[in-house]
């Protein structure tokens, strides 16, 4: 594999490597991914004059650090680059491991049907957590102290910094981090992924059972042979004889995971080892001492109905993604890492699709709830979109009728058998907000004297009746109302996005003759008489309908005389 052309990259990028675990419990990918020995030949090929006694083969193959005049590098006699021996200041020989892709997972000491006191060092969910046996803590602490003391004090750590050309899948190395006290802590790791662009790695901490992402290469050091050969004491475990609920599609939900981690957090624990899977995970019964009680975590999750009982033999078969190209099982936590990466990748793709959909949605014209249409330089019609109807707010009508108050409009509508619609920020927040905003477009917009946030809407037919009744004569207004009425009937959504032609032909009032003025006076007197009669009648009176028809005809006659023919023909046909 040409490492210059392939990178492990971020978790959302495609991967080209699997991490295997042999049948004996050791991860081994030397046959899957190998780097040619010539990768070392491109390193620095000049040496100090004081090192001319070294063989030319050494110069060609293994000069990877800045050697002082007192440093000497030795290679094993068979010529293989499995290790490099570095001598510093005539003191100690350092044998570095450059080829190992696995650590020693010696589990021969573990006996089945035996319980062990332990501490839980990491936990992802009930099928992936790591423990260290109490009996081995002393040995582990000594090893941790030794490796930290060695890399902090014994050598110049910069000379052991891992070079780019040596990075490959499962490469064994040592990585440092800083604890809460800002002290440098060293841990054995394996490289899972490498991003060439950021020069950073995702690494797995073999002694902790956890991983970390985007670790700068500056924090990686070559591991020595003696530290690489030290067996891994951490045990990867899963709760025996239970599985996720069927309804969760075999996935541990966040709620179950949180319950699991809460009950085991900072509690003394014991494990009873039941069996071991092909990938090295131990099936265990987990017991903790929590809040003064002994709890079997397996039974606890079953009791809460957060898991289902199952025979482990049914779940012991490895899935296809749990086996590498050589047929070896992949370590369970490394497999967990890549499965989590695939989940993140799917989430990333889903987010991209959602972002594209949102971008397309933003390109579409936003749904309009209010349309403001100029009538004259001073007057405007404000249409409101209420469900499937086109309506007008009371303040728009009041502005046309020179400040007619809200209560008068409401009384007129009720007397003429119309039913106003009242909306509020609680019932129709978007429409109310748009209507309040539209008030700014009206000069000296009328305000409600009731100091309420409710807005009254009137139908187009009701508005036409009001305008005729109060002798409103601007013909273009009736044309615009007719257009809105047609859009309402045909459910024409384009009406809300179209811009009305400001050059619409406007009709002017006729110059009235003396006879026409006299006739108008007579009609207005008759109209007033009809209105007074209607106010005295009850809604159930049989004479009320003929009087209303007569009143409408009288109003139409007045408009026919004052305006050109055909201006209110649409209104006349509505009777």
The count of strands amounts to: 21
Largest sheet: 8 strands, antiparallel
Mean pLDDT: 75
Helix content percent band:
25-40%
Structural class: alpha+beta
Strand order, largest beta sheet: 1-2-3-10-6-7-8-9
How many structural domains? 4
Q: How many H/I helical runs?
A: 15
Euclidean distance between termini CA atoms: 87 Å
The stretches of 5 or more residues where confidence is low (pLDDT under 50) are 1-81, 501-509, 564-575
- CATH topology of the largest domain: the name is OB fold (Dihydrolipoamide Acetyltransferase, E2P)
Proportion of beta-strand residues: 15-25%
Q: CATH top level of the largest domain? A: Mainly Beta
Overview of this protein structure:
This is Tudor domain-containing protein. InterPro entries: SNase_OB-fold_sf, Tudor, Tudor_domain_containing. α13 packs antiparallel against α14 (544-562). The chain contains 15 helices and 21 strands. It is of the alpha+beta class and 575 residues long. The longest helix is centred in the middle third of the chain and has 32 residues, at 332-363. It is elongated and about 125 Å long. The protein folds into 4 domains: 37-97, no CATH class; 114-340, OB fold (Dihydrolipoamide Acetyltransferase, E2P) (Beta Barrel); 365-506, no CATH class; 509-575, no CATH class. It has helices at 56-61, 137-154, 225-229, 254-264, 297-303, 312-315, 332-363, 394-400, 406-415, 429-438, 460-469, 475-490, 514-536, 544-562, 569-572; strands at 72-75, 83-88, 92-97, 114-125, 128-133, 172-178, 184-195, 200-205, 210-216, 220-224, 235-239, 242-243, 269-276, 282-290, 293-296, 308-309, 370-374, 380-386, 389-393, 421-423, 455-459. The model is unreliable at 1-81, 501-509 and 564-575 (pLDDT under 50). The strands form 4 sheets. The protein has an 8-stranded antiparallel beta sheet with strand order 1-2-3-10-6-7-8-9. It has a 5-stranded mixed β-barrel with strand order 4-5-11-14-13.
């Amino acid at each position: 594999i040409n490492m210059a052309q392939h990178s492990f990259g971020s978790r959302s990028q495609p991967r080209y490597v699997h991490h295997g675990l042999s049948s004996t419990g050791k991860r081994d990918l030397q046959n899957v991914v190998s780097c040619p020995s010539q990768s070392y030949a491109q390193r620095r090929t000049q040496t100090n004059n004081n090192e001319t006694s070294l063989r030319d083969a050494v110069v060609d193959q293994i000069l990877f650090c800045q050697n002082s005049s007192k440093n000497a590098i030795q290679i094993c006699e068979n010529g293989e680059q499995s290790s490099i021996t570095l001598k510093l200041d005539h003191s100690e020989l350092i044998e570095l491991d450059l080829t190992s892709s696995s650590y020693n997972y010696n589990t021969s000491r573990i006996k089945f049907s035996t319980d062990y006191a332990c501490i839980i060092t990491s936990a992802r969910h009930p099928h992936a957590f790591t423990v260290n046996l109490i009996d081995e803590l002393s040995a582990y602490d000594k090893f941790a102290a030794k490796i930290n003391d060695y890399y902090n004090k014994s050598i110049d750590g910069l000379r052991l910094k891992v070079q780019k050309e040596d990075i490959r899948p499962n490469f064994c190395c040592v990585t440092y981090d800083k604890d809460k006290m800002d002290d440098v802590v060293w841990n054995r790791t394996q490289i899972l992924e490498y991003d060439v662009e950021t020069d950073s790695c995702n690494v797995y901490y073999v002694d902790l059972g956890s991983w970390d992402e985007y670790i700068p290469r500056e924090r990686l050091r070559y591991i020595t042979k003696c530290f690489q050969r030290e067996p891994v004491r951490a045990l990867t475990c899963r709760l025996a004889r239970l599985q996720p609920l069927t309804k969760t599609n075999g996935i541990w939900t966040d709620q179950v995971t949180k319950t699991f981690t809460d009950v085991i957090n900072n509690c003394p624990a014991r494990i009873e080892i039941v069996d071991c899977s092909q990938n090295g995970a131990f099936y265990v019964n987990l017991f903790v001492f929590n809040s003064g009680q002994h709890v079997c975590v397996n039974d606890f999750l079953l009791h809460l109905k957060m898991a289902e009982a199952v025979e482990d033999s049914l779940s012991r078969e490895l899935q296809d993604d749990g086996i590498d190209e050589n047929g070896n099982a992949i370590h369970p936590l490394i497999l967990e890492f890549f499965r989590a990466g695939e989940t993140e990748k799917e989430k990333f793709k889903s987010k991209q699709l959602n972002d594209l959909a949102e971008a397309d949605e933003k390109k579409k014209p936003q749904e309009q709830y209010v349309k403001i249409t100029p009538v004259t330089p001073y007057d405007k019609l404000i249409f409101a979109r209420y469900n499937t109807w086109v309506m007008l707010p009371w303040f728009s009508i009041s502005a046309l009728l020179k400040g007619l108050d809200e209560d008068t409009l409401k009384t007129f509508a009720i007397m003429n058998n119309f039913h106003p619609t009242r909306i509020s920020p609680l019932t129709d927040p978007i429409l109310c907000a748009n209507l309040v905003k539209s008030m700014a477009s009206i000069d000296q917009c009328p305000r409600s004297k009731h100091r309420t946030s409710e807005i009254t809407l009137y139908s187009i037919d009701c508005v036409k009746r009001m305008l005729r009744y109060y002798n409103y004569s601007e013909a273009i207004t009736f044309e615009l109302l007719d257009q809105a009425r047609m859009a309402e009937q045909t459910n024409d959504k384009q009406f809300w996005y179209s811009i009305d032609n400001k050059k619409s032909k406007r009709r002017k009032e006729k110059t009235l003759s003396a006879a026409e003025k006299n006739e108008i006076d007579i009609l207005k007197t008759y109209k007033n008489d009809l209105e007074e009669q209607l106010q005295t009648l009850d809604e159930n009176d049989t004479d009320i309908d003929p009087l209303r028809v007569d009143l409408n005809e009288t109003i139409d006659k007045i408009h026919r005389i004052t305006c050109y023919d055909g201006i209110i023909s649409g209104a006349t046909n509505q009777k």
